[in-house]
Amino acid sequence: MTDDALLKQLEESTKDFSRHQAETLRSILQHQRGVRYLQRHLPGAGDHNLLIDAATFRRSVPLSCYDHYADYINQLADGDKCTSDDDHDHRHLLSVDPLVCFFYSSGTSSMKPKLIPYFDSTLSKGASHIAHQGSAAVLRKFFPPRPEVNKRLAFIYADSITKTKGGFKVMAASSFPLHSSSNPNRSLFMSLSSPMEVILGSNVEHQMYCHLLCGLRNSDSIDAIHVPYAIGLIKAMRVLESKWKQLCDDIKKGFPCSVINDVRMRDSVVEVLGGPQPDLSNRIRLIFEKKDWSGILNKLWPNVRYIRSVTTGSMKQYYSKLKYYAGEVPLVGGDYFASECCVAINLDIKQPPDLTRFVMLPTAAYFEFLPFDLAENNVVGEETVDVCGVEVGKMYEVVVTTYRGFYRYRLGDIVRVVGFYNSSPLLEFVMRAPKTSYEIVTEGDLMAAMENFQLVLRNTMGMAIEILEFTSSVDFGSSPKRLKIFIEVKDCDMILQDKLQESNLRKCCSALEDSLGSIYKVQRNKGEISPLSLSVLKCGSFDRLLKLAIENGTPVSQYKPPKIIRNPSIVDVLEENVIVTI
């Protein structure tokens, strides 16, 4: 299908959202009518002659979260098809389609990713194909291919594959095409500046270094820079800042430094380097020696046309830093695709995070909207509305019924409906939903407060202090409970060089507390919350969290530093790296 045909198909689908949604739900229920999960709530679901409308479905099947599927998923992972001998009619636990593998969720707040079953569903493949190919067509519309400059520097990682007790592979959803030898789009990987041996490596630090090395070797041929999430490019730039001399030396010699000890990766990079490149090395070294990192990406890769990455949600905090590195090169936004299903597509990819809007895809899944009250930091009851009931300006938690075994499943994403594209809701991603009603700050509250805090820091302390990363946790063991915020700053020793700086930091901490959201302020004024605790961490503390997450199964390609930590053991890791607490 041509790009024009794809874009036309997407456009047409948004013109009658309600009809497509009704057809999508009907298709899912007819196809999955024999699954055990549905038959628990819809006893007649297995009857081929029975048509279940949306109202009956929503009335009979309760809202669900991952915990409602955990037992089924564990049985599938262990290779079980049923729970007892008399379950022959219910042998399909979640889907009638064959189970292929499992995908990991990001698992950022708990460091323990969830398993998302991936079934071989023809219907789902069709919906996903339109979403992913449509996204590629949108990108090509803005940036038509150039035969003469056709390489992409992509910071992607296939991640390690594990296996369940039942022998099913477990991987990141983004890794699936990389491990699939039959993938029809495998030829697309030929355009990458890094060889597959780098992408398939097992040490993320070495992989990132080799991505940079191969990208610099192909500096004049790089058309675009791709990274799944903004944090991935930020980390790559920190490696570039600290390792640029070594990178120049490696290009000059024609082989990577001895630290890169994966033989297959090393040999593949040697082939890309193509022998000693002293002239290129000198040219790149001169750029670095100027010590001007503003617009550095355009200086190193003069033909790059765009940088693509997700910069919405918790990634928004990195946008200004990316703009600094990118200079005049446009930052292009990503789509709203979840591990469970595709949700919405970004048709105006050049917009900054604050103005990024996603057009919902009516055939990707059946969607419902659970009203969310920001003032209460919670959903309003358990009554959902469909597209006909959404109101512009209101916030909702997204609920999905997918082709692959999730029914009225709460995605945990809070969105704001900002308008309509034809008849399709136009969404702004707001934040991840709070896990419980006891949470006293939202991701949005924390990010806004930290942005203000950094400005106050610079004004009060008279120096440009860069907060590299931050997170928070509520200490319920304190009486009353206390919000703890942990920050890692660049050149932390400079901040804490004397007591005067610590005193200034204390003043800034007060300003930070005043910037937190309404829920926090109300409880703080009532005396239900102890004064805020702010801890400065040793450099590299958040890298330790990344390593911990990877050890626990989180795919590096999907890792997002948690903004609200709910796992006490993770808080303990941070506490061990505290330099000073205010």
TrEMBL record:
Residues 358-432 form the GH3 middle domain. Keywords: Ligase. Residues 446-568 form the GH3 C-terminal domain. One of its GO terms (molecular function) is acid-amino acid ligase activity. Signal peptide: none annotated. Belongs to the IAA-amido conjugating enzyme family. This is Indole-3-acetic acid-amido synthetase GH3.6. The lineage of its organism: Eukaryota, Viridiplantae, Streptophyta, Embryophyta, Tracheophyta.
